[in-house]
Amino acid sequence: MNLQAKLIASALCLGALPFAQAADFEDFGRVVRVVPQTQQVNSPRQECRTEYVQVQQPAPQRGVGGAIIGGLVGGLAGNQIGGGSGRSVATAAGAIAGALVGDRVDNADTPNSGGVQEQAVKQCRTVDHWESRTSGYEVTYDYRGRNYTSVMSYDPGERIRLRVLVEPAQR
């Protein structure tokens, strides 16, 4: 190798010297202990149940058509039967009797009260539901005779991969 090549190689080596002072590499440490870090989380949920309650039903509507027609027919019949001054009394009595009979015939199948019926009622309430969730792991590991502790997002197992940074000590 000639002198000029040696000088260039030496200059390059001297120029790279600051970059060679700090280096990093990967190594492994032995895991000594792993402690899961947990937190309590509330996830409220709905609990529902169905109850059956008795409800009073309203009375059904009664028809009035039978009473009206019965009153008209009874009034006409009373007017035909009665004579003289008793005609108006007979007409009124016939209208009342006809209205009563017409109402009973028209509403014969209609109950007087609504009765009681069971109805399903859904009742819900919010209940707290607490769960323990793992948020990370406190990992203690041994590297070259010294213990180190770090919090990690996963359990590394029996050994942990480490990035080792080597730098010269500062005065």
Overview of the structural elements:
By secondary structure, the protein is an alpha+beta fold. It has 3 helices and 6 strands; from the N terminus they run H-E-E-H-H-E-E-E-E. It has helices spanning 3-20, 65-81, 87-106; strands spanning 23-42, 45-56, 116-127, 130-143, 146-152, 159-166. The strands form 2 sheets. A 4-stranded antiparallel sheet has the order 5-4-1-6, with no helix packed on it. Helix 2 runs antiparallel to helix 3. The mean pLDDT is 81. One of its GO terms (cellular component) is outer membrane.
Q: Whole-number average pLDDT?
A: 81
Structural class of the helices, strands and pairings? Answer: alpha+beta
Q: Describe the strand arrangement of the main beta sheet, using strand numbers.
A: 5-4-1-6
Helix proportion range: 25-40%
Order of helices and strands: HEEHHEEEE
How far from one another are the termini? Answer: 39 Å
The number of distinct β-strands equals 6
Rg result: 51 Å
Summed up, the domain count is 2
Largest sheet: 4 strands, antiparallel
Oligomer: single chain
Looking at the structure, what is the overall shape?
rod-shaped
Subcellular location: Membrane
Keywords: Membrane, Signal
GO cellular component, one term: outer membrane
Pfam families: Rick_17kDa_Anti
